[in-house]
Amino acid sequence: MAVLPVLGLFGSKSREGAGKRLSGHPARGITESYYCDESVDMSLNNKKFQRNTNHGNIPAHRQRDYAMPAPHSASQPSPSPSSTYPTTPAGARRILLLDATFDDADPFRQVADRLATLADSSGAVVSRFCLEQVRLAPCLGDFECWTKTPGLCRTQDDAQNIARAFQQADLVILVTPLRFGGYSPSLKTALDRLLGVIHPFFRQGIGVTRHAPRYERYPALFFIGLEEESSPTARELFTAFAGGNAINLMAPCFHTLALAPTQEAWQEVLEQRFTAALAGRDGEAFPHHPPADALARACLADPHLPPSPVRQAALLVGSARPRGESTSESLARGLAEKLEQQGVSTGLVHVIDFIKPGRRREAALATLGEADLLVVAAPLYVDGLPGLALKALQQIAARPGRLHRVAGLLNSGYPEAGHNRSAMAQLRCFAHDAGLGWAGGLAMGAGEVLHGKPLATMPVMLRSQIGALEKAATALAGGLGIPPAASTAMARPILPAWLFRLAAKLRWFLDARRQGTPWNALGARPHELEREEGPVRSGG
User: Fold this and answer.
1) Cα 314 from Cα 403, distance rounded (Å)
2) Which of 435, 486, 506, 521 is the most exposed place for a label (fewest CB within 10 A)?
3) What is the pLDDT of residues 278-313, one digit of tens each?
4) Taking the chain, what is the end-to-end CA distance rounded to the nearest angstrom?
5) Residue range 2-17: average pLDDT?
6) At residue 23, does pLDDT exceed 90?
């Protein structure tokens, strides 16, 4: 009976890897060849996916629309990706370059251009996506890439090409300006849209719940953060965040590099690190064991936050789901109610208003700029804040108005609240970069238990979280930071992790059934194909 209240679980957009691969070493040498299932084929002439009909039972109309290869049965064990870098002949190697620099006038573009030259000269087939120019919508968080068209996002833009290039690559290079210790909104959006390359099912990882892999092999990752001036805090956060993404995306090894194009000999440093990344050597250690107090430290308010009573608060809902359907909005409304009981005027703003310039964005910025306190209520997408939320924060930082302090209110679909640590640290970094005070944070796990429902509908299961919101509202209204006791109460597990994993699996089966998807198609591998002859490009 305890399972019934939590069948609404979907899971999270925070993905940090899975399987016994995680218990091994990050790089064990170059010992394994490129994996390709010979039972799956794609004609290079007509580019149609060919299924092995011995697996699954996808309806005919679904085969025509989404043409998936043989599904990996949901009843079978998930694959264990190799923990070694694949050996592929130099002429057959494939490199994906995700370039988040702005344009040719951007001084950071020379770094991306140099990387493209190095990749071409290595003899590899190079696919380059300039993310500021491609068509890339924000992730809507509907999980249909798991339950309706498993492994494929149904939003028709360049995310499909990026996912295909990602799964075919031996090495993926991610180049981004450093933003609040993380990535630019365009790169983060691209990563958010890669959710389909992992499996929806959960399993026990190293001390925490993680997702299972969908494929047998994944590419190595090379993260490059570009900065105008060195910031040790931002570099530390960038390295930890990239490591979490590497676990998330099942990389056999990963490298990070924080670089300022103004520094001497940057080209030599870049070439050395590129050579090591391409060879799969000198990989960095995966952050499987972050400090136990990492989330608590990120949630801690600035020690010398000047006491200033709050008269007006704005709550930014960081989920792109429709209004009334997100856990982030449920939590934001719950905190707003508590703040209003303390005499604080509140208003909600949704990040979807920032998707493009116009009256809605200007109205949202005006509402936020009139407040004393900004509360960012957001879900966890791929270990961090959603790309669209980062886009909104960039614009708020440029036009803060009367804002003088920021607080965080995050939720992860994993049962453990600790997965929120990097996203909360990014919010703190945003506050400081924008010249605002950090008023602390609240973070919870198993957020999909709510899924848009008011907190009052689950008073027993969420009693600790409701109490945390009350304590936080009292402190914030009085001009103080969120007390550590409130952060601790918010992070308290809603239910045991084993029960969460069981309920989540049942929930995926039920949702797939509603979508008309056969249960044994949830593990489909649509990108497990022979490599294409040329690079994958945007727009087709």
Assistant:
1) 9
2) 435
3) 998 889 999 988 999 999 999 999 999 988 899 999
4) 49
5) 42
6) no
| Number of Cβ within a 10 Å radius of residue 77 | 10
Asked if 119 and 231 sit in the same domain, the reply is yes
216 and 284 inside one domain: yes
Do 158 and 171 sit in the same domain of this protein? Answer: yes
Residue 352 lies in a domain: yes
Domain count, the chain: 2
The pLDDT of residue 21 = 29
pLDDT band at 84 (very low <50, low <70, confident <90, very high): low
What's the chain's average pLDDT? 85
Q: Where are the beta strands (DSSP E) in 227-343?
A: 254-259, 312-317
Query: Is residue 40 within 8 Å of residue 50, measured between CB atoms?
Result: yes
* Cβ neighbours, 10 Å, residue 430: 26
Structural domain contains residue 527:
no
The Cα 216–Cα 334 span in angstroms is 43
Residue 285 and residue 351 in one domain: no
Query: What does the alpha-carbon distance between residue 135 and residue 133 come to, in Å, rounded to a whole number?
Result: 7
Domain of residue 326, residue span: 294-490
Q: Which residue has the higher pLDDT, 21 or 362?
A: 362
Identify whether 50 is part of a domain. no
Tell me if 67 is assigned to some domain. no
The pLDDT-based confidence of 79 (bands split at 50, 70, 90) is low
For residues 282 and 373, state if they share a domain.
Answer: no
Interior CA angle at 238 toward 236 and 242, to 5°? 120
One domain, residues 283 and 305? no
Give the pLDDT confidence score for residue 206 in this predicted structure: 83
Burial 20-30 (b: 16+ CB within 10 A, else e): ebbeeebbbeb
Q: Token digits for 10?
A: 């979907």
Domain boundary among 258, 289, 320: 289
Query: Of the candidates 296, 241, 285, 286, which has an alpha carbon nearest to the alpha carbon of residue 18?
Result: 286
